[in-house]
User: Fold Carbon-nitrogen hydrolase from Nocardia iowensis.
Amino acid sequence: MTRVAAGQLAAGTDLAVNLAACLRMIDTAADAGAELVVLPEFCNHLSWYDDRAHARRMACTPGDAFLTAIAGRAARHRMYVKIGVTLARPDGRTTGTGLLFGPDGALLGESDKQILMGAENDYLDPGRTESPVIETPLGRIGMYACMEGVINEVTRSLAVRGAQLLLNSLNSFAVDEASLHVPVRAAENKVWVVAANKVGPLLPATQLPAIAARLGVPEDRLHGAGESQVVAPDGTPVAVAPASGEAIVVADIDVARADDKRRPDGTDIVAARRPEIYASLAATPSPRRARPGAESLATALVAPDAGTIKDLVADGVELLVLPELANISITEVVRALRGSTAYAVLTMREGAAHHGVLVGADGVVGRQPQLHRTNRHPWLIELGTELIVFELPWGRMAIVVGDDSLLPETFRLAAVQDADVVAVPCTPAEPWELRLGLPERAAENRLNVLAAGSGENGLVGAVYALSPDFTLWTTWSGPFTGVISHPIVTDAPPGALSVRATVRPAQAVNRNVSKGTDLVAGRPRTTHRGPEGS
Assistant:
């Protein structure tokens, strides 16, 4: 077992005070017996500056007093220390950089933040290369920072290149970091995550009241949200700090657990990837081009019952999603839709293929073959080669079939094709899939997601609808809650034949999680291949 720690602290504009806080956290972690400690992002200075020149003056430089002290403290305690700072590069760039120091104080690796958040774009330069996977006696370590965990590419790249332990340094006010964005990166990749967030004001104290008033939010909503944590490969937090106050959390972990990527049916959810069909994800990202869809759309998840389908359609539902391989024929569904403008999505086994089928009142509109293999369907041999987006009267829709829902790449394919809605007939097998995986697919891609499956009590699943209240950069309908991108979730109640929810296709156009940070067009380019091109 390896004992790891996450330390949360406040950092202001006084570098000496900030350094003292970092050293105090390292000492506390060492006293708790930790072999590795992760500290937050921007530990040297608040991520708020007068201009780029100011940011560069406040940045660390290799071998300066700040970093020498951190390295020395790592050596004193014979422990690994990961810290996030700004770094003044010799080539003139100023980067937000994660640094990993070893038990002898040596710098083992560095990771420049590739996706900058909001005002960081005004002061800093994004990283140009993928973060390294660092071999250590503790295991294979990858590093990332804050916004890099709000979308999937950076952590996915680290995992497919063999990382077992991901270290996340955050500087975030968002409450859904701890509830969603941090744990999902562990679960979807079946790795350990150690995440350290800030507490205290994230803006200069003298400017905080004016900025809060301008944004229309309480001042405390611009504080670090804390809840630093250690998360197991199934997405379960095993240690969590409070939402406020300096703190250290410690956990004993078995790093080797991250080598088992199997789902309950034995499917390896990383090996199941198909990089050959992800070419569009490696292309140069571009802004959305498609026009907005409808402002609202009445939808339902529905059990395979023709009478219930007919009743929902009569009551104005325009899109229905049935569970994977539901016990109902296409003919029965078409008959239930007769005389309406509604559409329904279900799946069918067709020989050695598994197809998502889009039907309307006049019959089959289109088919989407499943894209990835799964041990759950040994007969599934004929796979699709692309994700199709269907143009419908109310917007653009993709169908994600069965276990394709486990892979973040599938939904990214929908997002880069400007989908508004994704229908997901699936069979959830692990708690993280509905609790973390599908909400994150909606959040990181700005997609309305409707997931329907079957369980012991009948219909399972949820509708994940995009909210028009999106971070601080849009007008809110009510008080700002601290949520950065979590969708509105409507779960299927136990024993129900259906669950209704309104989704908002037009909200898929709004992808700017902050000024200058587009969740889709701002993603980093990767090859989507593993260490040997697999």
User: Anything to note?
Assistant: The chain is about 20% helix and 25% strand. The domain at 276-518 is CATH 3.60.110.10 (Nitrilase/N-carbamoyl-D-aminoacid amidohydrolase). The CA atoms of residues 446 and 508 lie 5 Å apart. Residues 15-31 form the longest helix (17 residues).
